[in-house]
Design goal:
Elements: H1 2-26, E1 29-33, E2 40-45, H2 52-85, H3 101-111, E3 122-127, E4 130-135, H4 136-144, H5 149-158, H6 164-172, H7 179-189, H8 191-214, H9 217-221
Antiparallel strand pairs: 1-2, 3-4
Amino acid sequence: MKINDVIAMILGLLGLMLAIWEYERFMGKLDWDETQDPWTYEVEREQYQEEALNTGLRVIIGLSSVVLGVLVYNHYRIVLELYKTKQKVDSYDTLKSAGLLKPMIIEVIYCLIHTPPGVNTVYTLTQHDGDVEYPLSTFIVILMLGRIYLIWRIFADYSSWNDERAEEICNSCLCDGGVNFAIKAELKESPYRIVFCVMFISIFIFGVALRTAERPFKGTSG
């Protein structure tokens, strides 16, 4: 499970980084026109044009997303085998009877979200007395930022508070173990490290989301 989830995390975050790069290319490049007063933005590289590099990046992201979906399915399959080994479910249980099918389907569908080649739909909205063009990839990139959850799965796999020994101690003390217990234990043991990591990830996610959502307004606002 650890190997499977590490590969899934690397693949998911790599696809996210490539999607951000592809979006930056697709949005084109605006630069200051210093000859005008007041300065305004002018197009330096054509916007909303799918070049060969964009197409190549979208193909790579699509392939990585399909492999990521397979790894997510494999994760739930391993979880089912683990539950059977720990006798949390019966030996004849399936993903559906164990209650794992629905979350697996939702997660697989989510991990498959990406901008396919040739999909360059642009929506025009009126904001602040100007027309703002939002490409579909704007919303897709913001959705893909949620792939950061794969990091928390690694935390659950490698935390010493979520291993077999910790689970045995929790069971003997009539306490619920698992990821929630591990997070509370880590916060108790090293609160500053956990808070710093959460703050860093949050700043990155919301910073990229804000830039992605507001960038189309850059040319309209001047």
